[in-house]
Amino acid sequence: MVEIQENVSLLPYNTFQIEAKARYFAEINRKEELFWLFAQKEAAYSTLPLVVLGGGSNLLLAKKAQANETVVYPNLFLKMNILGKEILTQDEDSVLVRVGAGENWHHFVEFAVEQGWAGIENLALIYGTVGAAPLQNIGAYGVEIKETLVEVEAFEIESQKVKCFSNQDCQFGYRDSIFKREAKGKYLILSVVFRLHKKPNFRLEYGAIQEELKKENQSDPDSLTLKAVSQAVMRIRNSKLPNPAEIGNGGSFFKNPEISQEVFQKIIKKFPDLVSYPTENGRKVAAGWLIEQAGWKGKRVGQVGTYPKQALILVNWGGAKGADIWEFATQIQKAVFEKFEIWLEPEINVLT
Ligand code: EPU
Description:
This protein is of the alpha+beta class. It has helices at 32-39, 105-115, 207-215, 226-240, 261-270, 287-293, 322-340; strands spanning 5-9, 20-28, 50-53, 59-61, 71-80, 85-90, 94-100, 139-140, 143-144, 149-156, 161-166, 187-197, 248-252, 258-259, 276-278, 283-285, 300-301, 304-307, 310-316, 349-351.
């Protein structure tokens, strides 16, 4: 059985700290509960579109309110709380570990680092849950989870069967996977299997990590530890990203756009300082740089703004409405387009 609650405040479930309500809301603690839930064919919520909540750290509740009323989403919201970490197999080189979708991502990174398991130490302090991580192939400081992810176990809503997606099946891309495209809304992620390594292969190509390690006299590769790397990442993140417990935000709001070589050549002539790096198909441009150059870094309209230390982060300075944040984001898209002819795509999941 699952307790279905009604008119539940979503404030604790979104890191943008937007006040909105879910008409129906349920917490899922075990996968068996899903079989029960989807068997309730007569229930009022049975035909409503689902919204799946992980940590709510990549979600903007952007629906417009009627006059001064609180926004109510007519949907059934499912908060995925399935916990557990289980070693499936291990040998001297690596460990295969299954992690419940509801586990906190950062706590899992800390756990892996403590065990001496390498591969995700650069991904410390990313907010959200393990189950949400594959959706957008979370990444930071030169590492993405597609490098250690082996399999995703998911509940298929239509067939009510549990299905496994191999790494390849997930069709990972930059902040992208099949779960954001063809499989969107069709599956509930139950657990994720990772292969982590017992011998670290430190990934320090990101200049900021090297500088941070140097500051702490930890730059000697022979004595470097997973803990030192993860703590360096945490210090970098803390120094430029707002803590959502204090300032509402959803991390990077837009993706870093990828442009063709042709477009790049055109832009670089006019803007020689453009921050970008090569990719397979062209160049990836730093969206934060574009926003800053368009004059929007640290800008504030009412209770919405860009974070003064990182223009790619939109923040709720307190009591902002989701629709206002979305409107502000649209203004940024237009301003960047006017200046650079590049249209920024949201990285965040916008629920209107
Ligand atoms: N920049 C500016 N002005 C700004 C912000 C950035 O000029 O206001 C420039 C920086 O100087 C730097 C470049 O843009 O040269 C890149 O900035 P940064 O290193 O802060 O990384 P990012 O590209 O803005 C991406 C991810 C982050 C991830 C970092 C580190 C995306 C959309 N974002 O940000 O991920 O932590 O790299 O790897 O890819 C997230 O997805 O929520 C997230 C925080």
